[in-house]
Specification:
Blueprint (H helix, E strand, L loop, with lengths): L17 H4 L3 H12 L3 H12 L2 E10 L2 E2 L6 E3 L4 E5 L2 E2 L5 E5 L3 H4 L8 E6 H9 L4 E6 L6 E3 L1 H8 L11
Parallel strand pairs: 3-7, 6-8
Antiparallel strand pairs: 1-2, 1-4, 1-7, 5-6, 8-9
Helix pairs in contact: 2-3, 3-6
Length: 168
């Protein structure tokens, strides 16, 4: 990934707003595009979109030490909650934190009765950095199995936001 991260591309002409990224369809489409054509440009498009997106993470959620009722699977993340991500062990022996671009993608597989927490991707990085035995993400594991390795996650951490300035 040697490309200049701030280099303008044709995607710079599109207005990127939180509303455009809210349902995960854009992220999902970019992942599919990358999987069909594994170019550096397509990977960077995924990473820039991911940088500004919210994703869904299966996790055990507690507030004030009390576990949240799992019968209600969707929780927006708030500051006073504790989130322990559900881990997946792959055939290669590595552990991954699964993330989902869309809520429906999470329902394609078994969540082991975990809560599904909607978080900014940048917050997921913070959780990953504090996770034991785990240093990678897998996005939409039941559909696309899109793996983000340590190096790719590190690149994504340093990308600037491309969200349109809300003050303009």
């Amino acid at each position: 990934m040697s490309k200049d991260l701030n280099k303008n591309s044709s995607s710079d002409k599109v207005k990127i707003t939180p509303e455009a990224l809210a349902n995960g369809d854009v992220l999902c489409a970019l992942i599919v595009r990358f999987l069909k054509n594994r170019t550096e440009e397509n990977m960077m498009s995924v990473l820039f979109c991911l940088r500004d997106s919210n994703v869904f993470m299966p996790a055990e959620v507690t507030i004030g030490g009390k576990e949240i009722d799992k019968s209600m699977p969707i929780y927006p993340a708030v500051q006073n909650i504790s989130i322990k991500p559900q881990l997946m062990k792959a055939a290669d022996g590595n552990y991954y934190i699964p993330l989902f671009s869309r809520e429906i993608n999470a329902k394609a597989g078994e969540l082991k009765k975990a809560n599904l927490v909607n978080l900014p991707y940048t917050k997921c990085i913070d959780i990953l950095e504090n996770a034991e035995k785990c240093s990678r993400f897998v996005i939409d594991p039941y559909l696309y199995n899109f793996v983000l390795t340590e190096n790719v996650i590190d690149i994504s951490k340093h990308l600037p936001s491309r969200l349109e300035n809300q003050d303009s």
